[in-house]
Amino acid sequence: MESANKTDFSFTGEFAVTEEMQRAFDQEGYFIVRSLLGAEEMQALGSAIDRDEGIRAHAFDIGDGEGRSSKLSLWSHPGSDVTGMLARCEKVAGTMEKVLGGEVYHYHTKLMMKEARTGGSHVWHQDYGYWYKNGCLFPDMGSVFIAIDKTDKENGCLQVIRGSHKLGRIEHIMVGGQTGADVARIEEAKKVLELVYVELDPGDALFFHANVLHKSDRNDSDRRRWVFIISYNRASNNPFKKHHHPCYTPLHKVPNSAILECKNIDDITGKDFMDPSTDETIKPEKK
């Protein structure tokens, strides 16, 4: 069942959330902003992550239950490096505030690394399927999925079920090393809702609601598929219990120019990287 609502937009210097974008987020659960990050900003981001030390030193493997795995680094606080400026800037955090309808704070950021020929799949799930278990009462949450590499069907791009956020939270169980949504319910949803392959160029971004069903296939191509995913929670949705992600922590937003102005490339102080042994929603791959 296809929708007439537009979900594909382009970044301009005077970027702001339009009525069309808000409608797409409310009705379809997501929208894409092409070239959200420019070439210089992508180069700055690459300088912060293309090193074996720093952020990547905190990576661990997540299995897909089929003999493959992907690497993941996850941190709770944005910090003051280039990646922190990205998470705090107006065109990312400010946009999420507008579409979610109120102040947000940084819930966590992920660097997802799906390597060529070996990267594993990620099962169908809703982010709120497991954030619910963290004590977040409402699904007033969302993520910004930013392509570092070109992502397409060949290297395991993200897939979403359009409008699936309206299904409400679906029951989730452990599937391999991941938390996945009820398979039978997903099959029924696919009969009435459109499956979309989210193919992105570097710097393109997908803004999506926490209840949107999404997955990605394994990477059988000769190209890696690295992505950045920044997640936010409404300040009014402060979790009722402490857990491995932050409760409400004020987010100090910065102008978009801060990404290129930031000279802090490798200082990851204060990010608070996740220890996978403390997270009940994933099971790290054992070596």
TrEMBL record:
<dbReference type="InterPro" id="IPR008775">
    <property type="entry name" value="Phytyl_CoA_dOase-like"/>
</dbReference>
<protein>
    <recommendedName>
        <fullName>Phytanoyl-CoA dioxygenase family protein</fullName>
    </recommendedName>
</protein>
<dbReference type="Pfam" id="PF05721">
    <property type="entry name" value="PhyH"/>
</dbReference>
